[in-house]
Amino acid sequence: MTSETTPVALAPGHDEHLTAAIESAGGVLVSLADAQVLVWAGGVDDFPTDLPDAVEWVALKLAGIEEFMAAGLIDDRRTWTNASGFYAENVAEHALALLLAGPRQIPAAVTSRWDKQVIDTTIRSLHGSTVAIIGAGGIARSLIPRLVACGAEVIAVNRSGRRVDGARETLPADRVAEVWPRCDHVVLAAPSTAETRHLIDASVLAALPDHAWIVNVARGTLIDQAALLRAVRAGEIAGAALDVTDPEPPGPDDPLFDEPRIIVTPHVANPASGLTRTLAPWVAENLRRFRAGEELLSTVSPDSTY
Amino acid sequence: MTSETTPVALAPGHDEHLTAAIESAGGVLVSLADAQVLVWAGGVDDFPTDLPDAVEWVALKLAGIEEFMAAGLIDDRRTWTNASGFYAENVAEHALALLLAGPRQIPAAVTSRWDKQVIDTTIRSLHGSTVAIIGAGGIARSLIPRLVACGAEVIAVNRSGRRVDGARETLPADRVAEVWPRCDHVVLAAPSTAETRHLIDASVLAALPDHAWIVNVARGTLIDQAALLRAVRAGEIAGAALDVTDPEPPGPDDPLFDEPRIIVTPHVANPASGLTRTLAPWVAENLRRFRAGEELLSTVSPDSTY
């Protein structure tokens, strides 16, 4: 093939941001049958079952690709990229927003219509606190400088325990139990795996200080939600701010919605409506790398520990 | 006097944090009649009218001292300190909490019980935005590094226009009108003066972009509240997050409480319940300076432009 452009299929549907990014980086839009690259802007359900062998790289729009893994779609016959790192700034910002809204009682203040007595005595500052971040990937790397600028210290927990920049200390996942009594708040930013399922259970909730807030911007399954509701109602922790739930979405009568010390946002840390605009420059950069024969950003493989 | 301790009156009432601070820095608690220093932990109403001449320094607990100024209490016969700089970290944190809670739709998300469609399409990221801070004192100095860590840029406005560290640019107050169309959001951190009264009026609200949020952690009088309500209802701006109101407190039926895009917290940016704990190390430091003959922190004078 002597063409100077790279044939890229963009599916499903059209998207102005991704189209512009692909064309700006030397790609030309073609049908899947003629493609060397597939930029897949959809989910797992309508992913093409007959992916041509000529497709050398599949760029997924998703950050969490458990379903692609579970369906066995991620193969080793081509390169796969996901987008987890590309959305990290936005997710980190939402985590910070929740970690401030909870201890600083923002929703409670709005609901209580100037109940100064109650809000004034329950508000807590993030400044001077210790925040545990469970799962120290891209979200943590974006979140840590924000927390440090707010005067908080961070204990990072990752698989290896390898030092995370900006954290006061880093612990390996098998020592996570040491973290609970030593932190003021917890941010969950770990992938959903068999090991992280119900990471936050009754015993963890009992070990946390009673002023602790738990922020979840990862996956709902990381928390035993029934145990969480019991612990919040019993005052074992101060509250929880959840951008993800289990099940998701919650039913309209889910008791989460009726507990004033649980803040629920509808999985918008990385808003779907702005997704392709955020993703576009990264797709362009990876396409540039692909054409230059360089290593791609955010690759995943069948062995990835998601 | 040969005593090695400095006689300090602490009034009104007792306070464990301030007592410990005073004693740790070489002070000894005495009655006002015997005091060289008065640490005044109250407001203006019960301030002693017969302040002995022997009192060389009055340390006020308050950040905003308009009422002391108006009452003519701040004289030039002794040194006066207020506490505005000492609470700046806490107030800056609250400003950031409000600036995230608004654009990221936290209270709206809680109220709407997982209305993903609406929240997802109205949420905005602070990352990449430009925030105007009006009044570039201690609160701004604490807020700017937080905003920069969040990927926002700052236009600072102060009286002189003298460059504020960390701000992309600084404008003098007489050029503030240039800021409105060029910023995404506004944080009010200016003192309450005749010039700042109704700084935010109908014309400013019309000049701001329609996605703008206004955060007020200063004084309610800086905003023409009737104009604000009209502008928010008309969609001229996205919303307002107010820790201070005019009048304050608002009446129980104040329309502020019924406008979903106005967030009201009950003047808790610097919670009264934690005040003396926050203040104590600063009182200790100033007492150390006083005893050493050094310049005190956070002095105010009858000429201060508060």
From TrEMBL, chains A, B:
Protein name per the record: D-isomer specific 2-hydroxyacid dehydrogenase family protein
Molecular-function GO terms, alphabetical: NAD binding; oxidoreductase activity
Domain D-isomer specific 2-hydroxyacid dehydrogenase NAD-binding per the UniProt entry, residue ranges: 98-269
Recorded superkingdom: Bacteria
Keywords: NAD, Oxidoreductase
Pfam families assigned: 2-Hacid_dh_C (PF02826)
Keyword match Oxidoreductase: yes
Protein's UniProt keywords contain NAD: yes
Native organism taxonomy: Bacteria, Bacillati, Actinomycetota, Actinomycetes, Mycobacteriales
UniProt xrefs under InterPro entries: D-isomer_DH_NAD-bd (IPR006140), NAD(P)-bd_dom_sf (IPR036291)
PANTHER family (UniProt xref): 2-HACID_DH_C DOMAIN-CONTAINING PROTEIN (PTHR43333), D-ISOMER SPECIFIC 2-HYDROXYACID DEHYDROGENASE NAD-BINDING DOMAIN-CONTAINING PROTEIN (PTHR43333:SF1)
